[in-house]
């Protein structure tokens, strides 16, 4: 009877401690934020495990705890981390470790059985001990593209570009378009993992005396990233004086109207099966995307080409990116892509640094990790440019330090919910991310800071 009472008292005491810990974790995120709550949750979980293990009867520790995985997921979810990410990680860990343990237990390690094992061919893999060595191995074995793959992708994109330009000039000779060109990371040496994406830039030639670029701060939305193009001097030059007057909506040049016109001309009128047959590949338009996008397949290779209308005026470049501006059909996105890529290259050239190398490693990591795929090259470039203002050592010896420092900087911007553009500090580059996406990215990077190897697993 006395033992029963003691057991009940002990159980009530443990329940009280558990309730206190659960209350602390449930409210930690409000006080400490995503990262602080994650660290507190992991530390608290470790203490609870030690207490539970110490309280078990002798011999019980040797039995596998069947509920440990589900309890760990449930308790860590109180910290505000992504449940999907944790559940997926725990399931993968269990699938990888349990079969290995069972196999080891069943193996016969007697000398006779070892003698019967056939000799296997030993494959030499570089032994990477430090994070520095692992990053360089990851870069060389996984990130960089072969010259033949890059050349093949560039040639295929160029062939398609020439055909589209010739078609538009023959179909709409009165449409004032500049010389089309190919751009993007494939042509700037910034593409990673696979040569699978290019961008076809279609310059619209507009008359400066008819049109005025309205900066984002001067529009009704007051969003620095999105500009408008207003028709002017209508009292002197009436409608029809400019070819682009037919795309005016509410007094402004409509990016949606321009995209719809090009979509009908290019996507709806060109004979893609015949063109694909001529170029020895399969060409089809990507359905379900607001952007003008083509998919090109040839044997095992795949290449996507975005067709992007742009407007240039002096140093300002505006692009028509439908997925970025939502339902506002008159907005044009202010692009700093060329400025960012040029600045990064100039910095590396000035001190023989590895900023571009660090950027490409991070881009590959984000491309490989499902929870980080919303982190774009634009986000990473701007973080590295900001960091370069305070950090001068970007040598190969400092690659690991800079890699971890960029991760720290990104998590800091995620905590604030604001990543300023390097060339316009009023532009928030995180505005397109939801709160859930920010939480998931932030938690993954917090875990990676203490265990960066988890980010390099697919590349090794």
From TrEMBL:
Transmembrane segments: 28-47
Main location: mitochondrion
Pfam families the record matches: Mab-21_C, MID51-like_C
Domain Mitochondrial dynamics protein MID51-like C-terminal: start-end pairs: 149-340
UniProt entry keywords in alphabetical sequence: Membrane, Mitochondrion, Mitochondrion outer membrane, Transmembrane, Transmembrane helix
InterPro entries: Mab-21_HhH/H2TH-like, MAB21L/cGLR, MID49/MID51, MID51-like_C
Domain of life of the organism encoding this protein: Eukaryota
Subcellular location(s) per record: Mitochondrion outer membrane
Domain Mab-21-like HhH/H2TH-like stretches: 358-441
Membrane topology annotation: Single-pass membrane protein
The protein's name: Mitochondrial dynamics protein MID49-like
Organism: Huso huso (Beluga)
């Amino acid at each position: 009877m006395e033992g029963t009472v003691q057991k009940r008292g002990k159980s009530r005491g443990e329940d009280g401690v558990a309730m206190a810990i659960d209350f602390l974790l449930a409210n930690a995120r409000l006080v400490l934020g995503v990262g602080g709550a994650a660290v507190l949750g992991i530390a608290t979980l470790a203490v609870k495990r030690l207490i539970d293990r110490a309280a078990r009867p002798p011999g019980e520790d040797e039995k596998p705890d069947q509920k440990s995985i589900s309890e760990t997921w449930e308790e860590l979810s109180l910290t505000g981390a992504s449940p999907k990410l944790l559940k997926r990680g725990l399931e993968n860990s269990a699938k990888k470790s349990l079969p290995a343990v069972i196999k080891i237990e069943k193996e016969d390690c007697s000398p006779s059985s070892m003698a019967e094992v056939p000799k296997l061919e030993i494959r030499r893999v570089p032994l990477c001990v430090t994070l520095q060595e692992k990053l360089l191995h990851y870069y060389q074995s996984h990130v960089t593209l072969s010259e033949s793959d890059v050349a093949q992708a560039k040639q295929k994109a160029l062939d398609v570009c020439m055909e589209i330009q010739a078609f538009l000039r023959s179909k709409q000779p009165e449409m004032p378009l500049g010389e089309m060109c190919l751009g993007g990371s494939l042509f700037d040496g910034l593409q990673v993992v696979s040569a699978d994406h290019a961008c076809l830039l279609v310059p619209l030639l507009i008359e400066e005396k008819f049109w005025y670029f309205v900066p984002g701060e001067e529009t009704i939305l007051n969003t620095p990233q999105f500009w408008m193009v207003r028709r002017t001097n209508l009292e002197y030059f009436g409608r029809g004086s400019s070819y682009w007057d037919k795309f005016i909506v509410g007094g402004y040049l409509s990016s949606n109207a321009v995209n719809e016109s090009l979509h009908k001309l290019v996507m709806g009128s060109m004979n893609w099966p015949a063109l694909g047959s001529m170029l020895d590949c399969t060409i089809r338009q990507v359905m379900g995307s607001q952007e003008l996008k083509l998919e090109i397949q040839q044997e095992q290779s795949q290449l996507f080409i975005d067709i992007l209308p742009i407007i240039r005026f002096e140093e300002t470049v505006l692009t028509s990116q439908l997925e970025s501006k939502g339902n506002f059909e008159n907005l044009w996105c202010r692009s700093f892509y060329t400025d960012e890529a040029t600045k990064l290259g100039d910095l590396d050239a000035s001190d023989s640094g590895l900023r571009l190398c660090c950027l490409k490693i991070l881009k590959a990591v984000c491309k490989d990790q499902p929870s980080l795929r919303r982190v774009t090259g634009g986000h990473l470039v701007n973080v590295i440019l900001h960091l370069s203002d305070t950090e001068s050592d970007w040598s190969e010896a400092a690659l690991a330090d800079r890699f971890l420092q960029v991760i720290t900087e990104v998590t800091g911007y995620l905590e604030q919910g604001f990543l300023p553009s390097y060339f316009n500090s009023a532009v928030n580059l995180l505005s397109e991310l939801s709160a859930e996406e920010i939480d998931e990215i932030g938690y993954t990077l917090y875990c990676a800071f203490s265990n960066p190897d988890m980010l390099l697993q697919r590349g090794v």
